[in-house]
Design brief:
Number of strands: 4
Low-confidence stretches: none
Shape: globular
Order of helices and strands: EHEEEH
Distance between the termini: 33 Å
Structural class: alpha+beta
Number of helices: 2
Mean pLDDT: 87
Strand content: 5-15%
Largest sheet: 2 strands, antiparallel
Length: 71
């Protein structure tokens, strides 16, 4: 059987952003990823320039798709 881990509170996520017209946003994301990552708190992650995104209980692939749809 194949098992995918799910995201829970306290997980640290790394989020990559490709936005050639906004290199400042890419640098901000890179800096956060290198220093601390994005911690899941109360089921949500907070990314710059966005409202909190609920990721609790999702797989990494599901969270990736949700984040991409939000950005």
């Amino acid at each position: 059987d194949y098992f995918e881990e799910i995201i829970i509170d306290g997980d640290q996520l790394s989020v990559a952003l490709y936005c050639p017209r906004r290199p400042d946003r890419m640098r901000t994301m890179d800096f956060i990823n290198q220093t601390a990552g994005f911690q899941v708190c109360n089921g949500y992650i907070n990314l710059p320039h966005l409202d909190a995104i609920e990721v609790n209980g999702l797989t990494l692939k599901e969270a990736q798709a949700k984040i991409q749809m939000t950005y």
